[in-house]
Design goal:
globular; mainly alpha; two-stranded antiparallel sheet; 68 residues
Amino acid sequence: MELKRAVIYSKDIELITGKSGRYARKIMSRMRKKLGKEKHQLISLGEFCAYMGLPEHEIQEYLCTYTR
């Protein structure tokens, strides 16, 4: 069974980058500002991957492995 994710959370960013929660929240804040989103709006996995320059399919596989 493959897990499909539409949005990304700060905990996911912590897992992907190996950085702290504070760093992850800062990245999300910068992304929201750059994308013109408000605080309550979610960030998609695609937006995160584009911002960080990461291949979406690899991140999807990684999250599928660690979020079960």
